């Protein structure tokens, strides 16, 4: 599989649940991580530090990460910095819960 960009999004006001930590672990298990260079996460308010860390842990070649309208804390960012040594571009917007 040659996927280089992945966007995971929960539409605002859709009334549906967003990606959970368990869902993130399932995505991480099947993610073609050896080529994934860009990851976008939008509106995934149920995703915690642990779920985000599971995605970061399987994306070592990611170069661009963009997150918006997400609730997680510092542990998630530490996981990204440790797991993604090639990261060049980090965009964070409307982050809730970071203390």
Quick structural overview:
This protein has 99 residues and is α/β, with parallel strands linked by helices. The chain contains three helices and four strands, in the order βαβαβαβ.
Keywords:
99 residues; alpha/beta; Leucine-rich repeat, LRR (right-handed beta-alpha superhelix); four-stranded parallel beta sheet; 4 strands; globular; LRR_dom_sf
- State the domain count: 1
The count of strands amounts to: 4
Query: What is the fourth-level CATH superfamily?
Result: Ribonuclease Inhibitor
Which strand-content bin applies to the residues?
25-35%
Order of helices and strands: EHEHEHE
**Stretches where pLDDT falls below 50 for ≥5 residues?**
none
Determine the N-to-C terminus distance. Answer: 38 Å
Helical fraction equals 25-40%
Multimeric state of these chains? single chain
What is the averaged pLDDT score?
Answer: 83
Q: Main beta sheet: strand number and arrangement? A: 4 strands, parallel
The backbone outline, from C-alpha atoms, is globular
Q: What fold name stands as the CATH topology?
A: Leucine-rich repeat, LRR (right-handed beta-alpha superhelix)
Global Rg: 12 Å
């Amino acid at each position: 599989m040659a996927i280089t960009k992945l966007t995971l999004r929960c539409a605002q006001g859709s009334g549906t649940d967003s990606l959970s930590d368990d869902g993130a672990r399932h995505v991480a298990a099947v993610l073609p991580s050896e080529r994934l260079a860009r990851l976008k996460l939008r509106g995934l308010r149920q995703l915690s530090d642990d779920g985000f860390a599971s995605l970061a842990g399987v994306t070592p070649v990611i170069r661009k990460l963009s997150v918006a309208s997400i609730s997680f804390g510092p542990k998630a960012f530490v996981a990204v910095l440790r797991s993604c040594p090639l990261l060049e571009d980090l965009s964070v917007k409307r982050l809730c819960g970071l203390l």
